[in-house]
What does this fold into?
Amino acid sequence: MQESFKRITVLGLGMLGAFWNCDRAQIQEPAFLHVESLSMKADPNAPYGNTSSKVTTAWVEVNGENLGAHHLPLNLPILIDEEGPAEVRLYPGININGIASFRGIYPFYSEYSAQVNLRRGKTSQVPAGGPNVLAYDFSGLGGTLIVESLENFESVGQRLIATNQSDTSWILVNDAALKFPAPVGESNVYSGMAILDTGISRFEVHSLDRYELPKLNANVYVELDYRCSQPLSIGVIAYRPGQILQMPTATLNPSANWNHAYVNLITEVSGVPDASDFRIYIGTIKAGNGKLDTVLIDNVRLVYRP
It folds into this structure.
């Protein structure tokens, strides 16, 4: 009985080895696609402030085949039938509302596409000339894109003003250690800062202007650069017939370094179909931590298709 069992095992292993050798002969070494990062093209004349961005993910397509979503940087093995040029498309993805587990393609950036020479065992770098290849898709599917500057602190006057609930407001800072560091090729003179200390516990601003925003589940994003020692709330103030509603959308965690956030207002805006228009608000309430807290903000913009 034991001898019989041994023969079957050896025979099985021999057959497995034969199949393995056969499969190995047919398997081709993959080509590799490397994407270190993706960011917006520099534009010193951008009317909405600096071209700051934070693309965390890329949806990859090669010759029309969807290869899924991948965190950046990525090094993706690709099985190819033939070596040579292939059409590669990258769809930039973001952390929606600052949540790493809530990722999606940003609908307002154009995708990046290029002919890439794929060779087995070799790595092709994309984009070949560097990461600064993205731009707003001003005339894409869904109509003309609006990129409204809510505040970049470079103009006379303020477009984000303190609400009645706030007991502090902005000061302008141009200290290089504090202000937003502009992308290469651009400049930034000022950022806005609010200070929270003993007796100054609430900071809240809203947009000077009111905006008619698209409903019916249309994407409406607020983008901003921020650096803060307190959680920061972003949301809308909706003006309904006989009623004003203030609705938070997202709370951004404290960040010791400058960060870029994309906040989607779709739920709040579409949830009030009878609202005539909206203001955008940003605010925080100081915790009783016995220390001085600061909020630094720049390049606040409202992005949507009307």
In short: Helices lie at 2-26, 266-270. Residues 1-22 have pLDDT under 50 and may be disordered.
